[in-house]
Amino acid sequence: MPTPTGSTSADRVLDLLALLHARGRLRVHEAALVLDVAPSTAHRLLTTLVRHDFARRDVRHEYFPGPALDVVAVPPVEPVDLVACARPHLEALVAQVGETVHLVVLEGTSARFVAVVEGSPARRVAPRVGLLMPAHLTSGGKALLAELTADELGERYPRGLPLTPDAAGPALAALRRELAGIRRRGYARNVEETERGVSAVGACVRDRRGRAVAAVVIGAPSSRVHGRALDELSAPLLAAAAAVTEAISAG
To answer: Per the database record, which ranges form the IclR-ED domain (predicted)?
Structure first.
């Protein structure tokens, strides 16, 4: 449940109220994961709810609804099956471009690959379902990081970016510049940053409130899609991401 750039703390508090109402019990790390914020942010929001009697905390450091929450009718969060909504559109995208397509979600500072539709055998990139990779190196992860505010990005990387094995990863300042470019053009690139010989483009899909909840990624051998050819994949990618967004909103 990531919150889009420009949203306020009030948006997150309302999201947290709905989540607390739906689950009944909540820990800080669970709130951080579902809301897609740093644990420190989740703790601050929960503390605010406690201060205003919307939540209580027990000796096990679990939060539960407070008396003020009983006064307001907060609708429960209705989960959307992202993979089910996305799969028909991922399949259509593969049929159009012939390359392997993944669906990616953001988990802290990592990108989790949650679904794949493989391209034709002659054009296949190895599927990555279940893999967790550094978000700042993957196209889908970068597309999702670009949705964060400057403060939110800093909260996720308080000590800067982790180095890759060959120490070739970007510095946080360089990542911020790259994310600004991603916001301008609407999609992100990964040119052999996670795997030699593989390049990718990724774009966000959104829920009915406009929040980026996942990213569609097209991956292909760099020998076939490099330079302009990689950017030419952005048009079908963005169309597919828009189709998944519409499916999620209708779900």
So the answer is: 68-250
